[in-house]
């Protein structure tokens, strides 16, 4: 794989069809990555930022916006990029802040295809994509092969909880990979889940390809949480310091909850749910966690903790469909 430049320049940035950061001169680069056409045969482009140090070192890939409504992840990626301007680096940091273009334009988690045979889809179940698959799978194939995979010794994927619900600063890591667990701890999050991964998830595919990776959940979907964004950027820079890509001091790791199980309490019927717990509360089996009301405002159900645990997520949008998330515990 080599960096392939096209003749096009869009909004003063050059267009690439593939990226190999080893080809680039040291310094700060902004490109448009030509990923795929839409159904009108117009090319679509992802913004890519590359910070390449004068000194050799590891390559890190930071992605965000695979789910199009998870803006705190996007904002953390962008703020990380701004914080790297003018810094002296050993190695290369590549940042792709807005992966799912159609999802972002629709405030949606999903990828939207114009193909009448394709329903909106969760892109983070189809990595590494398929050159002969549907529109979303082809999009991921180009992303993985031409942009992501060739440019990483380790990787960080930024998300938030799904819209309508909230997380603290929460990291997924496969504890079997020592370097992934260390990265998770260096973020200094509120909670870490030992997660073996699921097929098609970007973190799982990175790990399966020998590139240690973590997924960071930066609070809630859609709405800005600046403090969590700041903590995420500090955590990413802590990893860059630890990997000696940056030359700053590594912050001490502050112990947090490290769980191996999550328990989700879901709406048993539709209605309006008011949580009776707040984030990171400790609960015991049988404790009241939420009360549900019907459309008259009459109480219809009380939810209790099925087990001891710590509150990792709860709904913030009151209206709940049957089966939707009310409270999630980590233990
Ligand atoms: Zn997500």
Task: State the main characteristics.
331 residues, alpha/beta, Aminopeptidase, OB fold (Dihydrolipoamide Acetyltransferase, E2P), 2 domains, eleven-stranded mixed β-sheet, five-stranded antiparallel β-sheet, 6 helices, 20 strands, binds zinc ion
How does this model look, in words?
This protein is α/β, with parallel strands linked by helices and 331 residues long. The protein folds into 2 domains: 254 residues, 3-Layer(aba) Sandwich (Aminopeptidase); 70 residues, OB fold (Dihydrolipoamide Acetyltransferase, E2P). The protein is built from 6 helices and 20 strands. The strands form 3 sheets. The chain has an 11-stranded mixed β-sheet, with helices on both faces. Helix 1 packs across helix 6. The site of zinc ion has 3 residues, from loops.
């Amino acid at each position: 794989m080599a960096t392939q430049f096209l003749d096009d320049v869009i909004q003063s940035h050059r267009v690439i069809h593939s990226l190999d950061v080893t080809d680039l001169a040291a310094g700060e680069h902004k490109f448009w990555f030509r990923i795929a056409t839409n159904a009108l045969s117009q090319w679509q482009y992802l913004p890519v930022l590359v910070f390449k140090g004068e000194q050799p070192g590891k390559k890190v890939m930071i992605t965000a916006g695979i789910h199009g409504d998870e803006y705190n992840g996007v904002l953390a990626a962008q703020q990380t990029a701004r914080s790297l301007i003018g810094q002296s680096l050993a190695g290369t940091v590549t940042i792709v802040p807005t992966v799912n273009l159609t999802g972002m334009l629709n405030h949606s988690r999903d990828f939207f295809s114009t193909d009448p045979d394709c329903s909106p889809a969760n892109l983070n179940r189809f990595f590494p994509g398929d050159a002969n698959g549907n529109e979303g799978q082809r999009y991921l194939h180009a992303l993985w092969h031409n942009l992501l995979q060739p440019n990483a010794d380790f990787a960080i994927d930024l998300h938030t909880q799904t819209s309508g619900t909230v997380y603290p600063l929460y990291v997924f890591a496969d504890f079997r990979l020592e370097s992934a667990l260390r990265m998770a701890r260096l973020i200094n999050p509120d909670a870490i889940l030992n997660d073996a991964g699921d097929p098609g998830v970007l973190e799982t595919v990175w790990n399966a390809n020998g590139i240690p990776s973590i997924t960071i959940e930066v609070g809630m979907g859609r709405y800005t949480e600046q403090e969590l964004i700041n903590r995420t950027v500090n955590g990413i820079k802590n990893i860059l310091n630890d990997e000696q890509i940056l030359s700053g001091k590594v912050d001490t790791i502050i112990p947090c909850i490290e769980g191996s199980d999550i328990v989700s309490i879901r709406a048993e019927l539709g209605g309006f749910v008011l949580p009776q717990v707040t984030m990171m509360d400790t609960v015991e089996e049988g404790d009241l966690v939420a009360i549900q009301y019907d459309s008259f405002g009459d109480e219809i159900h009380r939810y209790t903790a099925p087990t001891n645990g710590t509150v990792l997520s709860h709904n913030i949008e009151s209206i709940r469909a049957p089966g939707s998330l009310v409270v999630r515990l980590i233990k």
